[in-house]
């Protein structure tokens, strides 16, 4: 197995690094995105990428990309003795916000100790609204995307097997799966974990329950049945769907997106009515009263999936302070569930009746993506109880500029 961090430390499982299990640290940018570091080429050129289960292509900026569009590290193919260009295939991805164009190539790809030789990947010659410099620490800024979706979602004319699928095909991991622990939003820095080839039982509590990916879906999408607001043992709001609705499990998106009427009902139920919430037209997000009465209670939003799986999200974890370190200090807060936007990919998703489950919900859950059985495992994240106790004293405000950029990072097929 291969364990890779979303953190600054290289972790081992119970002190032992097992063959075929790879662990990598994930970087938590104040809850707005989760990053991972990879190496490409001979000698290795390093890149920090957004971890994205909502798309399938791995891409980095090419040396051909103008610096105003690609201001960070750019891959120089002439400096890699193992690089091979694929001239016959153009690379293009239209995300919910932003786009990237370029070509494909093949080279050595490294993720921790995991390695695939001559892996196909995208070389961006132009980008739009995707690389935003928010810090002087360039290893803590997204400089491309590491897509973890199904091969059918790659944009190449001739479909190929992405990095993790190649690891499984070549027998380099114990099990054809990867698991993700994001950590709490206030666990800034290199504090999450991605484990390739297995499950880290220290990162979850209770049994992992599995839901099959919906039939004929190119996404990591499972069936959803209802959304509830729970206060103690009382159901304060219950939205049971007329039929099973597709829910895309997308680590590459900051917020969670539902249809507008449902979003209104959820946010008003949480903050105690429409007087405590306003829809920001520019960003398409809800600005809520940070001091609303319901936010001081240990309420939870429950998302019910098929197979009686319940995702439990503390309401406090859905309230994101924008101008203060904690909810108590902030005067402006943003809600972690938003309505689909009315144009582009968002509108098409909305028309299909889909719901996108982004980081605002997923950080409360330990996730297992099973490539072989095409299913997703869910369990309560181990940090959740500790997070509820320390939340009010340790939350840092996110970068609003990035939140506007990273709203939806998935492609539509």
UniProtKB/TrEMBL annotation:
Domain (Peptidase A1): residue spans on this chain: 34-379
Pfam families: Asp
Coiled coil regions in record: none
Active site: 52, 250
InterPro entries noted in UniProt: Aspartic_peptidase_A1 (IPR001461), Pepsin-like_dom (IPR034164), PEPTIDASE_A1 (IPR033121), Peptidase_aspartic_dom_sf (IPR021109)
Keyword hit for Transferase: no
Gene3D superfamilies: Acid Proteases
Name listed for the protein in its UniProt record: Peptidase A1 domain-containing protein
Swiss-Prot/TrEMBL keywords: Aspartyl protease, Disulfide bond, Hydrolase, Protease, Signal, Zymogen
Domain of life: Eukaryota
CDD domains: pepsin_like (cd05471)
GO biological process: proteolysis
Similarity remark: Belongs to the peptidase A1 family.
Organism: Mucor saturninus
Disulfide cysteine pairs (residue numbers): 65-70, 290-333
MF (Gene Ontology): aspartic-type endopeptidase activity
